[in-house]
Amino acid sequence: MNKKILITGTDGFIGSSLKHHFINSGFQVFGTTFFRTPNDEKEIQFDITKKEEFSKLWANEQFDIIVHNIGLVDQTLPYEMMHAVNTQGTEFMCEYA
C-alpha cells in the first residue's frame, strides 16, 4: 500500500498512536506537531490557528486521507483560545482539505 495520510497533532497521545499504526500498516504518514520538534521531513511544526501556516503543509503532496486530530479539551482555558483551535482551526483544515 502506498497511500499518503496526513495526521494533525502527531505530538499528542492519540495522534502519535495513529501515526505508528498507519506506518505499521504501510501508509506514508505525514504529521503536524505543535509542542515538540518534528522527528523527520514528514513532520512539521504547525499552528492551526494561523491560516498562513497551511501553506507549509507539503504543497506538492496529495493526501489520500486526512485525520484531523488537533483540539483543546481543557475547559479552564480561555474561550478565545479554545475557539481559535477547535472551531476556527477546524474550519481552516476543512478549507485546506
Automatic annotation (TrEMBL):
Gene3D superfamilies: NAD(P)-binding Rossmann-like Domain. Residues 5-97 form the NAD-dependent epimerase/dehydratase domain. InterPro entries: Epimerase_deHydtase (IPR001509), NAD(P)-bd_dom_sf (IPR036291). This is NAD-dependent epimerase/dehydratase domain-containing protein. It comes from marine sediment metagenome.
